[in-house]
Amino acid sequence: MIITVDQTDPLPTFHLSVLEAQILVAIENVGWYAYLWFPIVYREVLNFGSDAPDEEVHAAFASLIRKGALVVTQEKWGEIPEWKLAPGALTVARETVSLGTDLLYLGWFIVRSLRAH
């Protein structure tokens, strides 16, 4: 589990990939509906812009659970679990998505500049 805790801050700091962060932001925006994620990721409904294959998205869910960024809220035998974002996870997710977008734009700008010369 990759969670570091600053003793002065009661919320854990999560180390998220851009894909994991995008998943958390989508869950926050739309809510948790398992049928929108499994077995097929309904990107249009979720406003989920990642191009990652569904298998990678599903693997990222397991990673989010291991990291403690997604926590189960309701689990009854034979029912699909309900999930929610752990405290502090959304803030880290939004920062990660923003940084990922900034890096993507920077890469595009560098490539364009190199082609111009």
Secondary structure layout:
Blueprint: E1 3-4, E2 13-14, H1 18-30, H2 43-46, H3 54-67, E3 70-74, E4 82-85, H4 89-116
Helix pairs in contact: 1-4
Describe the protein in words.
With 117 residues, the protein is mainly alpha-helical. It has a single domain (3-116), classed as Winged helix-like DNA-binding domain superfamily/Winged helix DNA-binding domain (Arc Repressor Mutant, subunit A), CATH 1.10.10.10. It has 4 helices and 4 strands; from the N terminus they run ββαααββα. The strands form 2 sheets. The protein has a two-stranded antiparallel sheet with strand order 1-2. Strand 3 (70-74) and strand 4 form a beta hairpin. The chain is globular and about 65 Å long.
Task: Summarize this structure briefly.
Helices cover 50% and strands 11% of the residues.
Number of DSSP-assigned strands: 4
Structural class: mainly alpha
Beta fraction: 5-15%
Strand order of the largest sheet: 1-2
Share of helical residues:
40-55%
Please provide the ordered H/E string of secondary-structure elements.
EEHHHEEH
Q: CATH-wise, what's the superfamily? A: Winged helix-like DNA-binding domain superfamily/Winged helix DNA-binding domain
For the termini, the CA-CA separation is 46 Å
